[in-house]
Amino acid sequence: MASPIDFYFDFSSPYAYFASTQIEALATECNRTVHWRPILLGPIFKVSGSGPLTNLPMKGNYARRDFARTAQLFGIPYNQPQPFPIHTINAARATLFLQQQGDDKATPFIQRLFKAYFAEGKNISELDTVLELAGQMGIDPDKLAAGIAQENIKELLKTEVNNAIDRGVFGTPFMIIDDEPFWGFDRFDHIRKWLKRQAS
Amino acid sequence: MASPIDFYFDFSSPYAYFASTQIEALATECNRTVHWRPILLGPIFKVSGSGPLTNLPMKGNYARRDFARTAQLFGIPYNQPQPFPIHTINAARATLFLQQQGDDKATPFIQRLFKAYFAEGKNISELDTVLELAGQMGIDPDKLAAGIAQENIKELLKTEVNNAIDRGVFGTPFMIIDDEPFWGFDRFDHIRKWLKRQAS
Fold first, then answer.
1. ipTM for the complex?
2. Is B168 in contact with A70 (Cβ distance < 8 A)?
3. Do B48 and A62 touch (CB under 8 A)?
4. Gap between the Cα atoms of A19 and A11, Å rounded
5. Handedness of CA B113, B119, B120, B126 (dihedral sign)
6. Residue A169: strand, helix, or coil
7. Which residue of B has its CA nearest to A193?
């Protein structure tokens, strides 16, 4: 099988949420797997000189409208969360810990966190919320809390963020396939076209 | 027939060029016409605090790659122009003048200018180039030069830019359909889906 799709995401990114609902189907369609890679946009924006979409003059209003409309057009449950954006360091570390443990609930847990924030109004920046959602899925909350606090997990997240910056990741969702970079939920169709060309 | 699609573009925007090759087909498909509205991104970027994509850290490299790849995937002739970006005030004024005259070559001339810049390496920031291309299409270059220099045309372009800012246009291509805003060539599919929902 060909190399996995590197799927970079910040849990606070609406377009990453939309992509998270469809990336596995896209990968299957292309005979690939998905490497789910949580990162933090905060440190990346410091390098790129950008900021959260909704804070940008003019773009902010449009973005809010586009979030809701995109969700509607693609049939994805969505309620503009408050607060927005949020810190996602707990959620990202939790994900990395579960992946490191080889826990097969890691991916469903990512999808659960996204949905909790973007469809159910749960503030996943809070550690308690992350642990509660984990518990509901049969993931041991105490073990997860200990994992989130581990130094090696904290370091791993930093490494992942730096690695993403080195690879040119400046926003999410960001997909890298065989070194080819694609930014945005609206590049899914480009990925399909591109893979078809590669195959022919 | 329903109201036209307002199609805002800057002649220096690659994604506006891509959109310019397909907007008439999209409009026909949706039983609409196109109101081609040249604007200048320079004054808009002053309001939005943004700048040309290729000048932005990290995003610039990606953008250049995405321009070429998008053109390839959609079968649109493209050669990354140098210089880039350029001043498009002559081209924009020329277009407005032809439209004001009711010249039915106005739209083909817009498409000709886009192609000259993005596929043929012609620098359409130069007045001589604009006039030469006009002449080749049977548009009187002397009349056009006089039109470009008219005070009312200069004012019209300013009004159009301010009007675009008032309507929230912060980049191009920007399509407004019945007051619904869509930004980017990658929103063409969203427009299709959105219009289908409106009709049902």
1. 0.94
2. no
3. no
4. 11
5. positive
6. coil
7. B73
Written as one letter, the residue type at B96 is L
Confirm if A118 and A78 have CB atoms less than 8 A apart: yes
List Cβ neighbours of B200 (8 Å cut-off, separation of 6 or more).
none
Query: Alpha-carbon distance B17 to B114, whole Å?
Result: 6
Interatomic CA distance for residues A63 and B195, integer angstroms: 19
Per-domain boundaries in chain A: 5-199
pLDDT in tens, A63-121: 999 999 999 999 999 999 999 999 999 999 999 999 999 999 999 999 999 999 999 99
Q: Tell me which chain B residue has its CA closest to the CA of residue A188.
A: B186
How many helices and strands (H and E) does chain B possess? 10, 4
Nearest to B5 by CA among B20, B18, B14, B17: B20
Question: Is the Cβ of A160 closer than 8 Å to some Cβ of chain B?
Answer: no
Contact B181 A70 (CB under 8 A): no
Q: Do A50 and B59 touch (CB under 8 A)?
A: yes
Sheet (strand B5-9) strand order: B34-38, B5-9, B174-177, B180-183
Closest residue of chain B to A167, computed from CA coordinates: B58
Count of C-beta atoms within a 10 Å radius of residue B155:
10
Q: Which CATH number fits domain B10-199: 3.40.50.1100, 3.40.30.10, 2.30.38.10, 3.40.50.720?
A: 3.40.30.10
- Rounded to the nearest angstrom, the gap between the alpha carbon of residue B195 and the centroid of all alpha carbons in its chain is 22
Per CB-CB distance under 8 Å, the chain A contacts of B62 are 168, 170, 181, 183
Mean pLDDT of B133-150: 98
Q: Does domain A5-199 have CATH number 3.40.30.10?
A: yes
For the segment A130-172, what is each residue's pLDDT rounded down to a tens digit? 999 999 999 999 999 999 999 999 999 999 999 999 999 999 9
* Strands, sheet with A5-9, edge to edge from the N-terminal-most edge strand: A34-38, A5-9, A174-177, A180-183
Please indicate if any CB of chain A lies within 8 Å of the CB of B65.
yes
DSSP labels, B42-107: HHHHHHHT---GGGSTTHHHHHHHHHHHHHHHHT------SS-S---HHHHHHHHHHHHTT-TTHH
> CA A188 to CA B96: how far, in whole Å?
36
Cα distance between residue A24 and residue A34, in whole Å: 7
Measured in angstroms, the CA of A188 and the nearest CA of chain B are apart by 10
